[in-house]
Amino acid sequence: MFTIFKRELKSYFTQPTAYAVIVIFLFMSLFFTFSLGNFIKIGDANLEWSFFFWHPWIYMLLAPALGMRLWSDEQRSGTIELLGTFPTTIWSAILGKYLAAAVVWLIALLLTYPMVMAVNTLGDPDNLTIFSGYIGSYLLCCTFLAITCLVSAFTRDQVSCLIVSCSICVILVVIGFDHVVRIFAQTFSEATTDAIVSTAVLDHYQPLLQGALRFQDIIYFFSIILACLLCTSAILNSKRS
Amino acid sequence: MAKSNKESTVSHRSPKAKVTHPFVRTVLGIVAIVCILVFSNWLVRATSLGNKTIDLTENQRHTLTPGTKAILSELETPVIIRYYATRKSEAMPRRVKNYMRKVDNLLARYKQLADGKIRIENLDPEPDTDAEDSANLDGISGQRVEDENVYFGLSISCLDQQTSIPFLDPANDTMLEYMLSSAIANVTTFKKPTIGLMTTLPLAGTPAVQPGAQPGQPWIIYQLLQQRYEIQNLGMSPEQLDPEQTPVLLLVHPAGLSSHTEYLIDQYLLKGGVLVACLDSFALTAPAQDPRMRGMGGGVNKSSTLPKLLERWGLGMDAYSVLADGKYATDFGNNQRMHAHLSLSTEAIVSDDEIITKGFENLYFPLAGGFTVKGDSDVSIETLISSSDQVVLIAGQEATQADSGIFARQQPTGESYGLVMRLNGKFKTAFPKGDPDAETEDGEEAPVSGLQEATEPSSVYLISDADFLFDRACFQQSQQGYVAVNNNAALLQNILDQCTGSKHLIGSRSRASTTRPFTIIKEMETDFEKDLHEDVDRARTRMNEIVQELQNLQMQKTQGTALVLTDEQEAKIRELQAQQMKLRRDLREKEKSLRDRKDKLYAKITWMTVASTPLFVAISGLAVWFFRRRATRAA
């Protein structure tokens, strides 16, 4: 697994993919913070609304862009057949590839450190809450990456993978959005609305931004990641057989 | 991993597995995983385990205070919370909607901690529904937004007791937990709280001077307290003080208190009573003579203190000197600036998150004394309101007259004095030898009796003024009746509310604010205002001088009465105008320079943050690409 992880990670940084995704992510997240998030005008050293609020909207497009080649590429080029001949299991390959992509995102997120420095220069922020926000942001990103990993196992076409993954991520974000929740509330019963909203990522992401690390949110993110990776494994095994 | 592969190989060989297509098996596997995913999440969410939270915030924003936990764990009678929230209306502002989730979570945690003693009824008061009628009956007021009535409030009831929080304003977020806990504590207390009152002031009114005459009216604050509490007038020499009967003792200007009564108060405190004492160094409202004695004396001493008790608690108070404060002096007009009449602004409030003084803007303390912390104490001492450090101590009688030259004659002490203090903890007796008045028949001291130390923590509130409660000090008469002109009455009411409510709420603080403003900008603005203030003061002084010079010139102009200005006067006026213009220009320049400084800082931060790292990553990427390409070519 570690060999695959290293090989994958190296491949990200020897090709322009990782650089492009990181630059776009940094630029978008920081640009949104200063423009739509009104960071300067509001004058609040908390990053909850000005910075972290935009991450789901960015990840739902960029996480699939980075993850779309995870398995689609292997299937298109036929190298997936070779995997069967390697002295390794499918599960190790999945983990290796997934962790490599997750590390790229970790680097991208760590490179937003100027934002933390800026708020510490301008005011006296609650750095523990900011740390919690980073945990939430990273878990969210890993969740979207796991979904993309699953979708890429289905298809050999990267564009299809990108479109389908993006759509799933958009749905997971949007169903927790206030206006949409209001429509659900007008259409369905309270229990149904609550059940739908509880599947939305925003419902589990926002407490983390406020510094509350709830058990249910951690379970939500980890269970989706694990389920997606297990399903990927099932699909790849099925294709191999 | 290897094992699972092995198992899958074995199952391939079994005759039964051959009939199942791998695709079907995969689909079934995925369906099973999704089902487990949904079920496990539902299970975690539905159980209390799911709500277990690690609070990562600096100020423990998501953790309920020990006071709240104690109140909820001690609940004996079921409490019903009717939670009115308009959820389906589009008119509800987004920030309120977001806040609604916080209230939802908070109520869920209250319910969980109350162990079945709290029932929450969620109601959405849509127009013309029973829920809307119920909201109105419970005193929950609808807020008019975009021509719609939206509701967001709580009604808390226990048996026949009911109280409500009419609107949960997100701006009051820091007070939410205190308001809710306090409401629960209030509805579960079934008797009107009792307060014992000891005073030498005519708070409860004065008796008729002669038969047929009108008795003096009680003070308005007394009437307000009567509406909320059962007030027991104990006189100035009660035989005993029992915390079981009077859990809170209010002393208002206890002048001429005997040592025996002070001992009784000491023992009352050690037995768990809560004391609120308004002492005074010069009580303006103390009657000079007893009205019933018709000019034959019987007046009340202007000074009151608790000499033994204050000393034991580690506090000092000059019983005959009042504070003349250069910063909080009151301007009565006509150059009548009274330094001993303290008009206290928000700056005098020591802590922003103190519930008793939360939201206070102005207080008026006429001729107040001041407390000083002298040394070590057995209990914790907090100052809630303090004077400035521009204080001179003067005799009470002297302070009744305006004296503009006082600060020229006397140097300020450079010390700020406590005006409202709170003491908390397990008190020790100030009378280790027992009751000072207790003597045996043959004149020898009696054996020591009474408590030496409290077994439970208790609280004392000390206020260094008693006149602040007088009608004219805190109310103004209007067509609607008496209206509070400052926060004087609210100060006493808040203190008594805390003392008579749950003991767990005494000393509660509001939550720290969730916003963290840019302090560097605030500092820049404060420095700027300070600079500007000095400039304006300098310019104003200069202009006053010029006006004075003009008047002098006018006085010298003795010949004729024609209003013709001399050349000198005209030159002076021109000078004045030129100086005014220069001043305005300077101020404009300063404002512009502050704006420029702020803009430069913002621009620097923006560029450093938005551009630096993406640029660094992009350049790194290009460098890697370039070196790889060169290496490939070389190969």
TrEMBL record, chain A:
<dbReference type="Pfam" id="PF12679">
    <property type="entry name" value="ABC2_membrane_2"/>
</dbReference>
<keyword id="KW-1133">Transmembrane helix</keyword>
<dbReference type="GO" id="GO:0140359">
    <property type="term" value="F:ABC-type transporter activity"/>
</dbReference>
<feature type="transmembrane region" description="Helical">
    <location>
        <begin position="83"/>
        <end position="111"/>
    </location>
</feature>
<feature type="transmembrane region" description="Helical">
    <location>
        <begin position="161"/>
        <end position="185"/>
    </location>
</feature>
<feature type="transmembrane region" description="Helical">
    <location>
        <begin position="20"/>
        <end position="40"/>
    </location>
</feature>
<dbReference type="GO" id="GO:0005886">
    <property type="term" value="C:plasma membrane"/>
</dbReference>
<keyword id="KW-0472">Membrane</keyword>
<protein>
    <submittedName>
        <fullName>ABC transporter permease subunit</fullName>
    </submittedName>
</protein>
<feature type="transmembrane region" description="Helical">
    <location>
        <begin position="131"/>
        <end position="154"/>
    </location>
</feature>
<keyword id="KW-0812">Transmembrane</keyword>
<feature type="transmembrane region" description="Helical">
    <location>
        <begin position="52"/>
        <end position="71"/>
    </location>
</feature>
<dbReference type="InterPro" id="IPR051449">
    <property type="entry name" value="ABC-2_transporter_component"/>
</dbReference>
<keyword id="KW-1003">Cell membrane</keyword>
<feature type="transmembrane region" description="Helical">
    <location>
        <begin position="218"/>
        <end position="236"/>
    </location>
</feature>
TrEMBL record, chain B:
<dbReference type="Pfam" id="PF23357">
    <property type="entry name" value="DUF7088"/>
</dbReference>
<keyword id="KW-0812">Transmembrane</keyword>
<feature type="domain" description="ABC-type uncharacterised transport system">
    <location>
        <begin position="192"/>
        <end position="493"/>
    </location>
</feature>
<dbReference type="InterPro" id="IPR019196">
    <property type="entry name" value="ABC_transp_unknown"/>
</dbReference>
<feature type="coiled-coil region">
    <location>
        <begin position="536"/>
        <end position="604"/>
    </location>
</feature>
<dbReference type="Pfam" id="PF09822">
    <property type="entry name" value="ABC_transp_aux"/>
</dbReference>
<feature type="region of interest" description="Disordered">
    <location>
        <begin position="121"/>
        <end position="140"/>
    </location>
</feature>
<keyword id="KW-0175">Coiled coil</keyword>
<feature type="region of interest" description="Disordered">
    <location>
        <begin position="430"/>
        <end position="454"/>
    </location>
</feature>
<feature type="transmembrane region" description="Helical">
    <location>
        <begin position="23"/>
        <end position="44"/>
    </location>
</feature>
<protein>
    <submittedName>
        <fullName>Gldg family protein</fullName>
    </submittedName>
</protein>
<keyword id="KW-0472">Membrane</keyword>
<dbReference type="InterPro" id="IPR055396">
    <property type="entry name" value="DUF7088"/>
</dbReference>
<feature type="domain" description="DUF7088">
    <location>
        <begin position="58"/>
        <end position="155"/>
    </location>
</feature>
<keyword id="KW-1133">Transmembrane helix</keyword>
<feature type="compositionally biased region" description="Acidic residues">
    <location>
        <begin position="123"/>
        <end position="135"/>
    </location>
</feature>
<feature type="transmembrane region" description="Helical">
    <location>
        <begin position="605"/>
        <end position="627"/>
    </location>
</feature>
